[in-house]
Amino acid sequence: MVIAAVVTVAPASADDGAAALAAGGIVFTHGTPVQMRSEELYVSPQKVRVRFEFFNPTKHDITTLVAFPLPDLEWDPAVGYGPMTRDPVNFVGFTVTVDGRWIKFQAEQRAILKGRDVTKLVNDGGLPVNAVSAGRRALSEKSKPIARNKKAEMVKLGILEDDTEYPNWTTRTRFYWTQVFAAGKTTVIEHEYQPVSGNWNTSRNLFDDPKLARQYCAKPEIARAAALTGPAYQTQYVLSTAKTWSGPIRQFHLTLDKLKPGNVLSLCWDGVLKRTGPTTFTFDANDYVPTRDIDMVVLE
Can you tell me the distance from the alpha carbon of 261 to that of 265, in angstroms, rounded to the nearest whole number? Predict the structure, then answer.
């Protein structure tokens, strides 16, 4: 296995497989003085789990909005996404606990077109805000009853394509809740979800394009291992931009899981990943400030 940095890529065409979507962790209101004492992050093609320990060093309780932004969805009939749940809003099956107790969170899903919120226009037209989860057939069925003048208006505004009537908007979703961090105490927040992992139908796709192989630090020894011609799964996690707390991560522990002993894991990473089991590799750091995201491929 070769460890070494990360660029988001999608398959060359719909026939090659499905595209991945990058999600990450929770974010706070900017300027929150809460410190992250530890983060334990587990990433596999099938599951992401995170355990945070936050400490409030002040003498006052801190109340802030905590949000989990999901990856944006954009309709493209030429690109298929990886597996999602059947829930068009919570399409990654997100769950969260605070100090061991399940909490209810609010959901916000918007249709965005060139920076403009067009959710009401989409709803008024009877179309699903999450057009990707609805699928081409369902979207077509829902668009049929739209009055001709209403459909013409949506085309004129750029919400629908003129010729195909496909959606042009971006689906933007986030979950959020109000969190109180007690003065001088630690709060444990844990969440997990199913990542939208992309895939190629054959691992050879990773090496057919030299640029793609470089992006995943796929060395010749990995290419030989990938001669099994099984599928390849791409999983992403946004780690570098979620620094909305105060200071570095005091203790950071990362586990990457390739799921099967015979699989091969490849990514670029700054640091040493240690093999800790038949399928797992770990990385530990103190006073950690993430500088790159996780973008890994697992080859079968």
Answer: 10
CB burial string 153-177: b at 16+ within 10 A, e below: bbeeeebbeeeebbbbbbbbbebbe
Residue in 259, 270, 271 with CA at minimum distance from that of residue 297? 259
Q: Which residues pair with 22 in a beta bridge?
A: none
Q: Is residue 77's pLDDT more than 60?
A: yes
Nearest Cα neighbor of 138 from 147, 126, 120, 154 is 126
Helix boundaries (H) for 14-130? 119-124
Q: Concatenate the DSSP letters of all residues of 132-172 into one string.
A: HHHHHHHHHHHHTTS-HHHHHHHHHTTSB-TTT--B-PEEE
- Report pLDDT digits (tens) over 273-287: 999 999 999 999 999
Give dist(CA 228, CA 226) in Å, integer.
5
CB-based contacts of 252: which residues, under 8 Å, 6+ apart? 38, 39, 41, 283, 284, 285, 286, 288
List, for residues 35-71, the tens digit of each pLDDT value: 999 999 999 999 999 999 999 999 999 999 999 998 8
CA dihedral 126, 132, 136, 137 (to 10 degrees): -60
